[in-house]
Amino acid sequence: MPVISVPHDFNEEDLYVDLRSIFGHALFLKCEGFNFAGSIKLKAATEMVETAERDGLLTPDSILVESSSGNLGVALSTIAASKGYRFLCVTDSRCNLSTRMIMEALGSQVHIIAGQEANGGFLGARIEYVRTLCASDERYVWLSQYTNPSNWKAHYRKTAPEIARQFPELDVLFLGTGTAGTLMGCARYFREWHRPVRIIALDSVGSVAFGGTPGRRMIPGLGMSMRPPLLDESYVDEVIRVEEADTIRACHRLARRGFLFGGSTGTVVSGAMGWLARHDDRELTAVALAPDLGERYLDTIYQTNWLHDLYGEDVLKSDEVPAGPWAAASPTPPARWGRRLDLTNGDHHGTQRPQFQDRRTC
Ligand SMILES: Cc1ncc(COP(=O)(O)O)c(C=O)c1O
User: Fold this and answer.
1) How far does residue 179's CA lie from ligand 1's centre (Å)?
2) pLDDT mean over 295-323
3) Lowest mean pLDDT among 40-49, 184-193, 305-314
4) Nearest CA to ligand 1 atom 15
5) How far apart are CA 165 and CA 32, in angstroms?
6) What would the mean pLDDT of 147-176 be, rounded to a whole number?
7) Contacts of 233 (CB under 8 A, 6+ apart)
8) What predicted TM-score, i.e. pTM, was given to this entire model?
């Protein structure tokens, strides 16, 4: 029986959903939404704050500041409330209303950046705002999830060993990419493991995390409007980009079976099912990560008007059994373990790498 006195001391580590009966391919979905921050970001937030405390960067009058599309903001709000720090989250207009309200309920301040950039993102403006704040008052401490090694180390120390313990025969791991902390922590761990694991990164069409053409993205959490500074592509075997309409179809298909997950889980599951349908998966042990649950997305991906306005009335036309890339695919010979980037859209050379300093305090 877990008994805790601080919220970040509890996380459900060992819950998986077997998706075979829902999608027709065996995929074990690791559920990361069962903790007091409601997402996988609690791990990164805890590791970053505790490292900063050990390094003497955080003092009782520090004000934490971070740019987040929501989940890291909630995780830092949870920890800040528990430890008595002030926290200011800089987010943007794509942040879900409920996520914003949770942060405020936990005592954090939320600043929303409204102006979208030419590349369709908000990240540059969010970071610029954080930098300006930090320059104005030395009490601000920016942990910088985009560059902070504690972000990926959290997953190297926790997420990956949790999976390894339960799946000693793991073959393929599907991971969504935001800052790439989850991806890099797991990929580094499994590179050193006793058997090869194929690491497949999922990204949204319109994200430029792995290059390609920027485009509209409305679902927060996954995807980036710049290349993630933590990303080292030599650890990634394949990249799959998923259309947001397919993300939505996968989310609704799961919801119709009683599993209400967040948007990025739809991306990961849709991309993974497409991959499994293209390969002979009979002998494969495949795991994917579900970063959060669905309540925070009730006013977006589970809201009919929002869906119709953005994706058209047909997006869920076949609502009982929504179509997705997994539906029409036929098996091909077993995957070979050669390293290869399989981009569905764009290439690796068209994107400028932004100048991004590793600046953890300001
Ligand atoms: C909702 C959500 N939270 C967290 C993550 C993890 O992102 P990262 O560790 O790449 O920042 C993702 C990525 O899929 C996500 O979608």
Assistant:
1) 7
2) 82
3) 305-314
4) 221
5) 16
6) 98
7) 210, 341, 348
8) 0.88
